[in-house]
Design goal:
It is built from 1 helix and 11 strands; from the N terminus they run αβββββββββββ. By secondary structure, it is mainly β. The strands form 4 sheets. The chain has a 5-stranded mixed beta barrel with strand order 6-7-9-10-11. Strands 1-2 form a two-stranded antiparallel ribbon. A two-stranded antiparallel sheet has the order 3-4.
């Protein structure tokens, strides 16, 4: 009875983790997961913006240890930008590709700070390029620099 309960627990946890078995594929080992990865369909230079035809999805099996972090589930899509040269057939994953930037270095940004009902809006210059949710430095004047998170195009929420 204990063995049957354990088998059901393992089957339930594997299903919850997204490791659905295809009916015609061989069974996976306990530490393996079937995932879908995005790969480049052609050579991509640094700074290229991905288009639909540049991305293909391939099913693969990876080894994943129960105690470690889960597999990378970032979904690369059209509009993402390459940060280094990528060969045809290479897996597209962070940090080789990044989400499209919403803030460009050197552009004017609105810096927002809120504490309860008090809201402060400053204007500054972005010190780096960032995607949505990425860290951004904001230069207010020569001596002041603030840090925040990109929340919208040319908008930063201060920490």
């Amino acid at each position: 009875m204990v063995r049957l309960g354990y088998a059901l627990l393992v089957a339930a946890s594997a299903g919850a983790l997204g490791a659905q078995q295809k009916p015609d594929s061989p069974p996976l080992a306990r530490d393996q997961r079937r995932i879908q990865v995005a790969v480049a369909t052609r050579f991509l230079a640094r700074g290229d913006t991905l288009r639909e035809r540049d991305i293909a999805f391939r099913d693969t099996v990876i080894s994943w240890r129960w105690g470690s972090l889960g597999p990378d589930t970032t979904r690369v899509s059209a509009g993402w930008v390459t940060r280094r040269p990528i060969g045809a057939g290479e897996v597209l994953r962070i940090p080789a590709v990044m989400a499209p930037p919403v803030i460009q270095a050197g552009t004017p940004v609105r810096a927002l700070y809120q504490d309860g009902s008090v809201q402060l809006v400053l204007t500054g210059t972005a010190t780096n390029t960032a995607a949505l949710g990425g860290p951004v430095g904001v230069r207010i004047d020569r001596g002041r620099r603030l840090d925040g998170i990109a929340v919208a195009p040319n908008t930063v929420r201060l920490r």
